[in-house]
Every structure is written in structure tokens, then in C-alpha cells.
Amino acid sequence: MIILDGKSVAQGIKNEVKNKVLELDKKPVLSCLLVEGDSASEIYVKNKQRACEECGLISRLIRLKHDISQQELESVIQKENNDRDVSAILLQLPIPKALNGDLAINTISPRKDVDCLTYENLGKLFSGKGKIAPCTATGIIRILDKYNVNLQGKLAVVVGRSLLVGKSVASLLEQRNATVVLCHSKTENMQEITKQADILIVAIGKAKFITADFVKDGAIVIDVGINRIDGKLYGDVDFENVKEKCSMITPVPGGVGPLTVACLMENTYKLAKEQQKL
Questions:
Q1: Catalytic site residues?
Q2: Does domain 27-114 have CATH number 3.50.50.60?
Q3: Which of 102, 169, 248, 275: CA 20 to 30 A from 116?
């Protein structure tokens, strides 16, 4: 059994970005909009700021009050759209339920949409024409590539259908000629489906949901879950219960999480490069 080392793969991606940034006319700027009130988001944003510094990018943090109106939020986004110094815009999720996340995300210019969540960029992704993809989905493909996992013809089962992870990684897997099954909370007999998977990717948001009974012998398991319980992090996969059945598995922490941040840096670089071409 091989534990897939997300930290080392992520470091390799960041090193590549750092070298490529030196070739640009000016440093890329990542503008992160943080609506205050979510403690986990505060941690994630600090990690992203630290990665920007490491990769030679400029990090711009815009803090927004928890009671910001929809109009005010969209006005801030438009200001960043119009700022020619800004290469990429990230609206840190989740945002308060009083706000319309879809409207806010689609206010971001597709040319600066670093997490590839605007309808225009998702359309390009799902049609196989996208230049970037959501960061977590990209990170999953990058670590599978690094460990020389051949996706062609393999049965890949994705548990969870969010745009940010499930649907996006399903599309990327299909583009690599995997046969993809997408499971979700309404799927019947899920265990029977996941037990057939050569590659099982889990992003359902339930701590230790996947146990050994869900996993085929020799499967590759990618755990996207980050669940905080009593100050500790747990994945959506019961790691200790499952690991001996796998040929490869990602840990939590140290698996997909670092890859998400590294691919955010890579997407920022790619958007900056496209803008400098124009």
C-alpha cells in the first residue's frame, strides 16, 4: 500500500510556478475576497497567502463584513475585475446564506476566475475546452499523474457532486478516457457501486463515511474530505479501516489539501500569462 504524498507533489507544483513567474513581465496578483465569520476560511486564506509569497505572487486580501449586502459584494468584485493589476479573483467559500453565491461568482470576470466556477468557464471545462479547472479537481489529476496512474479504461467512482470537486473531477477523468460513475446522497446501493471502483474519489463532507466495506481490493482511494471534530482533521474515508485494502490512498491531512493550494497558484499564473498576452 502506497500513501500518496500530497505535500511533496504540491511542493513540486509550487516550485514550477515560482520559476515560471520569473518569465512574466510583472508579478501576478491574486485578489482574495473574504467575508468574515468563518474560522476555517481564515485558516485557508492564510495558507493561500503563504503560498503566494513562496511562489513569488502578490496576495491581495479584501476583508468584507459578515453583513455585507449582495449589491456591495458584487460592487467589490467589479472593482477587482476592472483593476488591470489584478490577475485572478477568488471569492472564499462558503459565504453567508443571506448572499447569493451563484450571482456573486458569476460577477467575476471569466478571465480572472481562478477557481473556474463561472458558468462560462464551467461550460468550457465540461466541453473539454477549458484552459484551467477548479483547483481541487486539478490537484487530484496531478497527484494521479505523479504516481503514474493510468486512467484510460479504468472505472472511476466519484462520491459527491459539487461543482467545485465532484462534477469537475468527473469531467477531467472522462477526458482522460476513464469510465466515470458519479454517486451522491440519493444514490441507491452506493456500496455496491463503490466496491467496483478501480479509482474511488470521495468528496461527500461526512467524516469517515467510507469504510473497508465500500472499497475494492487494490483500489486507489482519493479522500477530499476535511472534517474538523474536536480540533482534529478527519477525511471522508476511515483511513485506518480502509488503508490495507488499497493499493494507494491519500491521507488527511497531507493529501489533497496542499494540492488545492498549489493548483490555485498554478491557475493564477496561467490567468496572468493569458492577460499579459492580450
A1: 48, 92, 115
A2: no
A3: 248
